[in-house]
């Protein structure tokens, strides 16, 4: 025989809160009045203290409000407080694009963390190019870490769309500089960053021209084409009217002649792309041409060709660079036979050039290539024989 047993009634608290909700709606047994913007809300201290750390501290920590049955709340409006009280009693709420910001503000004030998180996730689902800057600023103001990071990432990924919005033109100087200084901006070329800065400056040139020099510091001028630097940047009004800007442009022009200096420049994040490398067609037995599909622009373009034409070439990416490994090519005197290759090339999408790298120890084609832990691995058969692995 079991002398004792513990039972848990899962519906107990739900039923109790349902009764308290009915009492609240009928204003029965209420022991406190919450005043917001002159509007009075009757409520139960025990319910408010159980849901809100802010109100619990107010009622229990010996503050003046702990001895009163009337409390005035600042920092929110009466409509939002009505929603917050409803949530505290019922545990459910309708979040809309119209009330989400005020609900997040109010839930942050009262310490309603679950509601605050719901509002943050709702805002994440509403991110667009036209509102992401505002949402990011709002998240940063209320220390919504996950929302801030998500909004910032969205801005980086959709930068070319964001700069066409009204929010972008209304950015403060410091916020825009913070954005333009980031290497995580996904652009196809540095000239897009320069034009984004020009767009913001020209929106109110009279009041913004004095900060042009600061913005030029955020542009990686050395990554711009020589022709663009000379004909576009140098000839822009705010560069011609600023001696410091002219000095920076001239310095960039000189740096472009120094390959070692160029290697020290950190490129922006490249947008997602697909590369098609080498292969063959009905005319050529092997190709060295390369094409690139840009997800942002939704179009294919031709990029510089490899140094060595080949088919059955393998490829992988590492640290923002593209590697073409091995492959084969047809022999000139016997087109039906092929020569297996050991060559390895590396493509830099910023400098737009291929560079030969140390060759494979053994010629290979139709292999798998992967980058893991700072190494490149070439996995597969050699000369149509046994399986083998090399790493670089």
TrEMBL record:
* Domain BTB intervals: 30-97
Q: Which key words tag this protein in UniProt?
A: Kelch repeat, Repeat
Q: So which domain of life are we looking at?
A: Eukaryota
Q: Which Pfam families does the entry mention?
A: BACK, BTB, Kelch_1
Per its UniProt record, what SUPFAM superfamilies does this chain match? Kelch motif, POZ domain
Report if keyword Cytoplasm is assigned: no
User: Does the record bear Repeat in its keywords?
Assistant: yes
Query: Mind telling me which InterPro entries this protein's record contains?
Result: BACK, BTB/POZ_dom, Kelch-typ_b-propeller, Kelch_1, SKP1/BTB/POZ_sf
The UniProt entry, under PANTHER family, shows: BTB DOMAIN-CONTAINING PROTEIN (PTHR24412:SF501), KELCH PROTEIN (PTHR24412)
Name of the protein in its database record: Kelch-like protein 2
- The species this protein belongs to is Octopus sinensis
